[in-house]
Amino acid sequence: MNTTEHDNDDFLAKWLNDELSEEEKSVFENSEEGKEYLLIKTVADQLKVKSYDTEGELTKLKKQIESQSTKTISLYPIYKYAIAASLVAIIALSYFLLKPSYTIVTTEVGMTKTIELPDHSTVKLNGNSTLKYQAETFNDNRKLELSGEAYFKVEKGNDFVVTTENGQIAVLGTSFNVKSRSQYLDVFCLTGKVRVSADNFAQILTPSMALRLNNGILTNEWTKTITPEPLWTTGIIELEDVPLSEALDALVNTFGIKINSSISTKDINYTGAFSSASIKDALRLVLEAENIVYKYDEETKTLSLLSIE
């Protein structure tokens, strides 16, 4: 569109309001500029625009603005949630980084394992047993958790503590055997001194001394012949005045057998030993000594207790 003297607000306003003279109107509408404006006006007139009360709506809008205070969006909740999320992330990361890393050693029934600890102490783990400790900090914090039976040969140093579900054993430098199964705890001191504690009980053991706690209560004390290591580490399972059920558990842990019983062994105790080299000899030594009739299926490794003669 070309710019001329017609192309100003006053002239266009007069033309739109039909305030031009006929001559002025004719000259303008026949000019190039006028033809373009006329086309625009014609198209606009063809649009059906809804009637609009400009003054009324303007007054309404003014009242709304006056009645409303300026709305401010607070960023505090956003910061609050962001900080909370950051704290959660930091806590989770700290837990992951600082969470203790444990070494867990487990033996299946019928097998044993020897472990050398970071302080060069050694542990011989009997069958069906678990040992747990923190390797990275062990030299400064010599604490272990035991379930089952193990023989410990401890190097001298700071406190060496073995925790079981039935009691705790603390030493400085010594060798001792611990068996914690079911509700009982057996401790046998071979060298040095051992402190055994549980609930309201505490006692010091010296070489050849052994004791048993049952549910935290002292039930038996005895002395044993000191050997270089406990007999079970050489394949000989020795039991001292224990319930027959414990002797049967020893058979399970040594040979991995299953036991079915149709008799009660509650009032039967056993004292003796058997070799882990032969299941037949072990059954004979444990069961025939107590006049128990039994049947053993080698294929399924199942022992059936039938009767007591």
Features:
309 residues, alpha+beta, Phage tail protein beta-alpha-beta fold, 13-stranded mixed sheet, 3-stranded mixed sheet, 7 helices, 18 strands, elongated
Order of helices and strands: HHHHHEEEEEEEEEEEEEEHEEHEE
Q: Helicity level, as a percent range?
A: 25-40%
Shape: elongated
CATH architecture of the largest domain: Sandwich
- The count of DSSP E runs of length 2 or more, i.e. the number of strands, is 18
CATH level 1 name of the largest domain: Mainly Beta
Could you describe the largest sheet, including whether it forms a barrel? 13 strands, mixed
What is the CATH topology classification name of the largest domain?
Jelly Rolls
Oligomeric organization of the protein chains: single chain
When the domains are counted, the total is 3
The parts where pLDDT drops under 50 for at least 5 residues are: none
In whole angstroms, how far apart are the ends? 126 Å
Strand content: 25-35%
* Rg, Cα atoms, Å: 47 Å
Structural class: alpha+beta
Number of helices: 7
Let me know the average pLDDT.
84
Protein model, in words:
- The protein is of the alpha+beta class and 309 residues long.
- It folds into 3 domains: 1-48, no CATH class; 102-228, Jelly Rolls; 235-309, Phage tail protein beta-alpha-beta fold (3-Layer(bab) Sandwich), CATH 3.55.50.
- The chain is 29% helix and 35% strand.
- It contains 7 helices and 18 strands.
- The chain has helices at 9-16, 22-29, 32-46, 54-67, 76-98, 244-255, 279-287, and strands spanning 103-106, 113-116, 122-125, 130-133, 142-153, 160-164, 167-171, 175-181, 184-191, 194-198, 201-205, 209-214, 217-223, 236-243, 258-261, 269-275, 292-297, 302-308.
- The strands form 3 sheets. Strands 1, 2, 3, 4, 5, 6, 7, 8, 9, 10, 11, 12 and 13 form a 13-stranded mixed β-sheet that branches. A 3-stranded mixed β-sheet has the order 15-18-17, with no helix packed on it. A two-stranded antiparallel ribbon has the order 14-16.
- Helix 6 (244-255) packs antiparallel against helix 7.
- The longest helix has 23 residues, at 76-98.
- It is elongated and about 140 Å long.
- It starts with 8 loop residues before the first helix and ends with a strand.
- The model has no long low-confidence stretch (mean pLDDT 84).
